[in-house]
Amino acid sequence: MDSVFQKDGNRLVRQYDGEKLWIEPWGENSLRIRSTYLETIIEEDWALLPQEDIKTTIEIDEGQATIENGKIKAVVSAAASGKMTFYNQKGEILLEEYVRNRKNLKEFTSALKIDAREFKANLGGDFQLTYRFESNPKEKIYGMGQYQQPFLDLKNCTLELAHRNSQASVPFALSSLGYGLLWNNPAIGQVTFGKNITEWVAKSTKQLDFWVTAGDSPAEIEEAYAKATGTVPEMPEYGLGFWQCKLRYQTQDELLEVAREYKRRGLPIDVIVVDYFHWPMQGDWKFDRDYWPDPEAMVKELKEMGIELMVSIWPTVDKQSENYAEMLQKGYLTRTEKGIRITHDFLGNTVYFDTTHPGARDFVWQKAKKNYYDMGIKLFWLDEAEPEYNVYDFENYRYHIGSNAQVGNIYPAMFSKGFYDGMKEEGQENIVNLVRCAWAGSQRYGALVWSGDIDSSFESLRNQFNTGLNMGLAGIPWWTTDIGGFQGAYTEDPDFKECMIRWFQYGAFCPVFRLHGDREPHSEPLGTSGGGLCPSGAPNEVWSYGEEAYEIFKKYMLMRERLRPYIRELMHEAHEKGTPLMRPLFYDFPQDQKAWEIEDAYMFGPDLLVAPVLHQGQRRRKVYLPEGAQWTNANTGEVYQGGAVIECEAALDTIPLFLKDDAKLPIVN
């Protein structure tokens, strides 16, 4: 009888009972695995970049086949189960498929009849896929994107593989066992990193597709992932400083007066933002001239002050927009499977434009180019990018390239791609756009992600702390928050002022330092049409919270300025190697087992340990300083040997900061 295996170039192929399985090298020390019960494997790379051929060792024996690429090896059984096991170069098991059946009596047998690769047919020809691995209870899992929950280590967590406002599924998992796994599938689904089993689910898909890499350190794994999916561009200089934003400047005069006040006070500011509803109608993608009468003059004055203008872009198209009829005719709008074709209802009945349609991406970019870019605006805020359906019935929406259930998670990446491609075609380099969601690969399109419409509280701040670190490990090094949170806070509330101060201190040591929020109480709308329809939040400038807060804010704005050369180096490293600017302690100290346990401090680059205050009323805190280094308290000059927990002062104006070894960063005067 012929073997179920064959060698196709550097690809190992297994065919058994209708299943086609491909395993092939995809970058150094890395393998890509695809499987389907359809006629052919789909040649769609999704998050992955094409890779050059790599010499690979493939051996086919009577009972199994192996494929080895550097530090990773896959062994596949010839038996009906077709079980796959992945090893590192030391022969240690990294991943082992979960098989519970009697298809091979030479393996562990079970009467449960559970396969590792389970394809259940859906009506219409695709499958619900469930993919299972054995679980190592001692393993720690990181990455996976942005989830509003308090855990850095995701072991024993269940995560929805779907986007929501403040949730971004970026399905790359970094393991303490020495591997990284990308679930290269944009379908809506779920993953469970359970104590007894690891289980990935795609609700509607044509095939299994994942990428796995082995490495001796988190940095090696992260860099391999960056080579496979791309890195961010170089961050432009204005990305290193302070960004001022609020919901929402209602007029051109109001925004310019704020910018002038920053300059009058001698405060550093690099970017100021025009938020949503500066337009006549959603889907017009232009200024409402009743409130923004001379955008060209506004951009000119801001540039003379050394300030870049960022403008909000929503993907919503109102049925009364001047562009709706043409976009409908050309198939540029998302569709609903049932019910009325309204996907977002906010100050109008709107439909999202279809970012998966190349024509739609170009159409929206051309409008933005004419109405913003040609005026000198080179920085866009791609909001509502999940997209934020009024009802998250994912199965009810359809795109140009497939159903939302099958491809929906790629929407924000294509939103970023549309603007990135357009700006690149104009000759712009160092492209960055703020976007409220991302998927794997978004980073290569200049995506700066922020954590969405979050609560304004210490509890929310603690969630963002974990989120930012896991986003970096998921391959999205450009990340930020609304300093102070987005909603639910009154400017004059003393408790919120404390939260705001602590958040501002933390924000100074995020990749991008950005103030935003919807503060209470609201002001009234200015009119009854166009940009006048939308109210505004209370003031949200650094002088809006009283003199004590202002002096502390100023301290950290100036501190950020002094750190520009250091941050510029970190941004370059992110561009070159995919290195996250902010990362858990174990990233730089993987041999220190205690560092893998720390979830309240992080490294901002290789030389600076940041220990933010995350609890109300806290004025002292304990900090673990990793072993293998000497640490200097940047605020006091005290020197400590690593490998110990110390207690330090954390007065309201102080965030604990520690310099590694002989680092000479100009943090304090």
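the 2nd protein, sequnce then structure:
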Amino acid sequence: MSPNHAPWLSRRSLLAIGAGLAAAPLLPVSAARAVDWSGVDPTVFGSTLTGLPADPTAVVLGSPGFTTHADGVGDDTAALQAAVDEASRRGIANKLGDILGGARDFPHGDGGGVVLVPEGTYRLSAPVNVWDSVRIVGYGARRPVFVLGASTPGYATGTPRDLFSFRRRPFGGPVTYANNDTFGSGLVNFDIRVEPGNPDTFAVRFAGAQLCILQDLDIHVGEGHTGIDHNANLIQRVRVFGGEIGFHAYAASAGWQTTVLDCRFEGQRRMNVRLFNDAKLVVVRTVFAGAPRAIESAVDQWQHLYLQDSHFQDIGDAAVVLNESSSIPGAENELIRGSNQLTVLNCTAAGTRDLLLLAQTGARTRTRTTPSRIKELTYGLRVERALTGQETRRDGVHADVVGTAGTAWTQRILRTDVPSLPPVSSWTSVADVAASMGRTIGAGADDREVFQAAVDRYDTVYVPIGLYLLSDTLRLRRTSNLIGLHPRQTWLRAVDGHPNFSDPDAPRALVETPRGGRNIVIGLGLDTAEQTPGSANVLWQSADGSYLADITTQFIKWHPEDVSSGDPGYTYRGRHKYNVWVRGGGGTIANVWAAAGWSDNGLFVEHTDEPARVYEVSVEHHETREVVLRGVSGWQFLGLQTEDHIYGWRSQAVEIVSSSDLLFANSVFFRVATVLGPYPYAVSVQDSERIWLRGNRGYRDKTPEFTQWGAGAIDHDTGRIVPEIEFAYVEIAG
């Protein structure tokens, strides 16, 4: 049974999971303490949505039919649940978020929507179900606060109980926890506070397959148990204070990574983060503070764990506790043994002596001084000077830890690369621009003229929930920002069959940014329609300092001509060059799902030395190539996921040509159990140098002759290979 469907453990059994895991006893609960390190932290946490966006389809909590007390005294649980239910019903009506469309024996699923919550304090007394593809979004100069009142009945029975529960509810079908058919759900820009007398509270039960987010939250667990339980895609600018466990992490459904970006876990009584079944965390610019342990794996579990540019502050026992690889059940299989991987890269520690504890042997990797800088710490297989005659291999712990890392160094590594959103008061709704032109948009006619007028006149354009048709490329200026709140409810779609999108040798994108731009484009779905072989979803040319995030494309799987299927991903085919196309661009790219499978190239990046950080990006279902890099330098891929499907077995995960200085961190190159054929390698390299693969998941135990790559990497020119598909480090020097 998938852990995302596992029955709830009792509080006693949950706390006992790790009994006997460490060679040394866990420090007592009283070791958790407040940490005053705020002067070190360069990140400003606060409201990121400062006013009410004008969106007639969103549900506003407190509006007629959803009235609240908002005083922290009266119970607002029913009003919030009613608002979430209404947002879900509106999504069913417009079908904008329903990826399944009645296929795979599911009736039409929740279409989803947005609940907007104004400033105020809202008392809750029972779990709130966050249905598939619904986002609860706070707004105001100060973030709203949801409070679980003191000694609320049901939260001190010995059994864990949620406050916010991510759920999947097919229309007319059974309710389950969110699973691999859950897309786009989220909690954004509010705070949660658990008052005393609620020891069994799990503040958020988080799960989902793609585009699910926890963003801009402060979670004060207090005497409660856990801040975040289970995980999905992106956890960004979230702080968890107190509790027994800050984050109890599992493998995201259906086995993807979870990226933890610009987060803080402080003052937990037992550990900041607990890892269960191969949680595959990608942790960047995150602080772990004031707990006996920062990160600990449950017994018998392997982990693909990656930490970069992060900080450990006043950790009493050990920063990371892992199982020794040979002790894991099934370790006689070198693929399972190799699946236990750790990378700690360019991190710092203060008041923290032991960095890594291997539980079964008691072996500890220690700092030399405090404070200290962890240049590199890995556990697992290292392949150095790969694809050459000087290739070497070694396994186990590799540590490069130095002293003298002070406050300035920690501040530098924690400084975010994510630009702040402009204040809502500066946003202009594209619907208002349409009204000023005497036009109506989102009604089935061509909306491109209105959209182009909006971005020509205003720097920040807000796109309300809806489906908008474009007959040609929407071209942004260097200072243009394009903002939506929900990528599966806010769609820009090509006019199907339009001659502007007819030439596959001269593709036009739905959205194009300029060279040198400092653009922010977030919260949108892009759909190139059906008969548009000369289209691409986006052409990104913006410079470092720009931001492309929370973006999805239409969901289409490549398939042969003679295949017909009830799955909406197979109902038509096309031939396009590009899905997401980057030419000369860079910046920060996060939480993008590129699954327009008829394109020859899922993510195609060319001719750029603009630095880029790519977080939690999923590229799936293309026929021949998922990710292609040609003439690219200075890019980091942190949590890249690719997926082949039943007919896409000829699809290569990554192709690299004439490129340099690339990092791939904690990649998952996935082949589904039903895939119909093998592929000889995941990553190919040609005429390229200084490429680092740090952490890799290529193992799957279902039909391994097809689902496991023939090799991890190959040199296209010499034919040399790295045969391992599970490793902590591969260096391709060139």
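The chain has seven helices and 53 strands. Confidence is low (pLDDT under 50) at residues 1-31.
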